[in-house]
Task: structure prediction
Amino acid sequence: MVDHSALKVNQTGIVVTVLVAFVGSFFFRPAELLIPVLAIVLLLGTFVPQAALFKQLYFQVLKPRGIVKPRPVEDRPEPHNFAQGLGGVFLAVASILLVPFEIAGLALALLVAVLAFVNLAFGYCLGCQIYYQLGKRGLIQV
Amino acid sequence: MNPQLWALAVAGIVVLAAALLEFARSARARRAALICEGAPTTEPYILYFTGDACTVCKTHQEPALAKLEGVRIDKVDAIAQRDLAESFHVYTLPTTVVMCSNGRALHVNYGYASARKLEGQLTEARNAVRAPATA
Result:
């Protein structure tokens, strides 16, 4: 069972953080530092669920106060964790690119935000599809 | 132009290119899948390709399929029945195939297909089989 509200909060967190970093960088370049911070948050959350910042925000604050209602769905957490990890890896690459190629770094971070938004709004999870493709080819145990 | 606007342009071009590639890919896969045939039946039916790891299948596709009353739905695990999935060029989950009663695939939907869309395709499948008889 997976609480899809936690996933939605996570996706919202990704979109908002990247947008704040992007828009903020127009006026104050260090705002781009939010991108490596987000990469760390996502990667850490993938391997240590207790450290998943946005999900903890949901479980510790939003859910108990009734701000966001839970939506448990018969589902497996692995594809979502994989997608989150993939997002973290792309943001880590974007963070590295920000130094020598600012345009490429920002563009990659924006793409991660677009994919998180597509998942949030339409339920299409590219990372989950990649997980399925890897499983189909026997590269990971699905 | 400042770097942020360049980045926005690059991301936009990548999204557009990905959308066009996806469109071309699904069109090619659909053309290839439409030549597939199954066993003839009395009524059109739906082949529903899904998998354990498919979230949209559970949250969107299955509720949509549940709205189709009296329609036979053959659920296929795309990982376990890889050969069948390959023959319909299933590259994304969920995938739904509307099969005519004569065993021909009439519509292939890669990704989520709404109940209304499937209903329309099933009506088309019923008419497609009846049409030659009335002509």
In short: Chain B has a mean pLDDT of 87.
